[in-house]
Design goal:
CATH topology of one domain: formyl-coa transferase, domain 3
Number of strands: 7
CATH superfamily of one domain: formyl-coa transferase, domain 3
Structural class: mainly alpha
Shape: elongated
CATH class of one domain: Alpha Beta
Helix content: 40-55%
Distance between the termini: 41 Å
Strand content: 5-15%
Radius of gyration: 27 Å
Order of helices and strands: HHHEEHHHHEHHEEHHEE
């Protein structure tokens, strides 16, 4: 997934909105939005830099766990081959999770009385969750987790995403007439200006004429470029 490209586009759009607001408020006439692609991901990383510079702690790769996991969670595979993501972000939810995978003996262990204490024994917690999930089917895990109000969610395949009832109800997949291909539609959903899909991809040269006109070329010059085979127009290219 091109996370850097997509996130940079979003942050760039946000920068434009901020610049427009500053113009409307009279604090700036206009300004350059300067954004490098790597900076979008750097901004999303957040904690590794202060962890190193403020606490002299360098986060390391940690398998299917977070590099600095202060609360139980991770990715686990059931005995029937289904991947689950498990998360417990508070002491209360962590206790429920531990009780689901290890019973009272694990949940009442004094090492896990608080998240702060639990963080020192996260390998034990992770292994307990992993042992339980890998030895049970998805249905068994879901039943036990539901009984203890613990949090786990199935990791959907693309097939699962495209057939998911909630996503379908939200209308997040759209297409253009005459093409079976579906893509993700405009998000967020706006009531007055929702946006619409016009094409899945423009034909080569579809916008060449309008762009050259904006650059000062007249029709005669554009035609000459086309006849010389230098440019294509509306999906066609002349071969002199």
């Amino acid at each position: 997934f091109p996370a850097a490209d997509s996130t940079t586009g979003l942050m760039g759009a946000l920068g434009i909105m901020i610049a427009l607001l500053a113009r409307e408020q009279g604090t700036a006439r206009g300004q350059v939005v300067d954004l490098a692609v790597f900076e979008a991901l750097l901004r999303l990383m957040d904690y590794p830099v202060p962890a190193l510079t403020g606490a002299d702690h360098s986060p390391r790769r940690n398998g299917l766990r977070q590099p600095m996991d202060f609360a139980p969670g991770g990715m686990f595979r059931t005995s029937d081959g289904v991947w689950l993501t498990v998360s417990a972000g508070s002491a209360e939810t962590a206790q429920r999770l531990l009780r689901a995978v290890g019973g009272d003996a694990l949940a009442d262990d004094p090492r896990f009385a608080t998240l702060a204490e639990m963080s020192h024994h996260m390998t034990v917690v992770f292994d307990a969750i992993n042992d339980f999930v890998t030895q049970h089917t998805l249905a068994e895990v879901e039943t036990e987790f539901a009984r203890h109000d613990a949090v786990a969610s199935r990791v959907l395949s693309v097939e699962g995403i495209t057939t998911n009832a909630q996503i379908g109800q939200r209308g997040d997949f759209v297409s253009v007439e005459g093409d079976p291909t579906k893509v993700i539609g405009p998000v967020p959903h706006l009531s007055a200006t929702p946006g619409a899909l016009r094409w899945l991809g423009r034909a080569p040269g579809a916008d060449t004429r309008s762009i050259l006109c904006e650059l000062g070329f007249d029709d005669k010059q554009i035609t000459a470029l086309y006849e010389a085979g230098i440019i294509g127009l509306d999906g066609t290219r002349n071969t002199p």
